[in-house]
Amino acid sequence: MLRTEELVVKVDDEGGKKCLLDHISFEVKDGEMLVITGPNGGGKSTLAKTLIGINKPESGKIYLNDVDITDYDINHRANAGIGYAFQQPPRFKGMPVSRLLSLAAGKELTEPECCRMLSEVGLCAEEYVNRQVDGTLSGGEMKRIEIATVLAKEHKLCVFDEPEAGIDLWSFSMLIQKFEEIHRQKKQSLIVISHQEKIIEMADQIMIVDDGIIKRMGSKEEVLPYLNGVKKCHECADRMEGKF
């Protein structure tokens, strides 16, 4: 279980402090799937990076299975059982995909094992297993390899930052199937940042983050009607704007 208590994250801004996250408190139970959504720039990725140790909170606490991990660095949190897929995955010139997967798994993987992981995220495995993780790969290819690195090792909690960004519809369908499988097995908790309706509908809980605060959080049945209402309001406003 992951639990946060009153997380506050601030950054230096023109001689002062700008608050990016303002007293964020929530929990994700074992085997549960939380989808975080909301407007761009509202603090979703900041929250994800705080959970995995890239951002350091000014105050507040983070607990994993009731262990205080607030002061853990990113490596210590990974060893504690938190996996993370970046919205913009890093590239490593000179490193083969197979080596990256082995590092992510924490053990030397065979070529068939690497190929299976790549196939699960919609890549033609034999074409990619020996490719370098560099600028020759497209954004969508990098995103799928990044997701494969998270799935290469079993975690207590996996955090995915907009995993659907930059991938084609066929690969997106395979990604949905993978999330459904993880969710069904209940072996790992999932936090997924997404705007995609199909991913949001899979959630046990939905959190809406905007302006650095939790605007609304609850079960799918509680929050989806609210989201649909907001969407209809925006669509209506867009139509009205087009009339003038």
TrEMBL record:
Q: Cross-referenced PROSITE patterns, in alphabetical order?
A: ABC_TRANSPORTER_1, ABC_TRANSPORTER_2
Q: Which residues form the ABC transporter domain?
A: 2-236
For molecular function, the Gene Ontology terms on record are: ATP binding; ATP hydrolysis activity
Superkingdom of the source species: Bacteria
SMART domains noted in UniProt: AAA (SM00382)
- Stretches assigned to coiled coil: none
Q: Which UniProt keywords apply?
A: ATP-binding, Nucleotide-binding, Transport
Gene3D superfamilies from the entry?
A: P-loop containing nucleotide triphosphate hydrolases (3.40.50.300)
Pfam families to which the protein is assigned, alphabetical: ABC_tran
Q: Does the keyword Transport apply?
A: yes
Which InterPro entries does the record match to this protein?
AAA+_ATPase (IPR003593), ABC_AA/LPS_Transport (IPR051120), ABC_transporter-like_ATP-bd (IPR003439), ABC_transporter-like_CS (IPR017871), P-loop_NTPase (IPR027417)
Show the GO cellular component annotation of the record: plasma membrane
Q: What is the name of this protein?
A: ATP-binding cassette domain-containing protein
Originating species: Hominiventricola filiformis
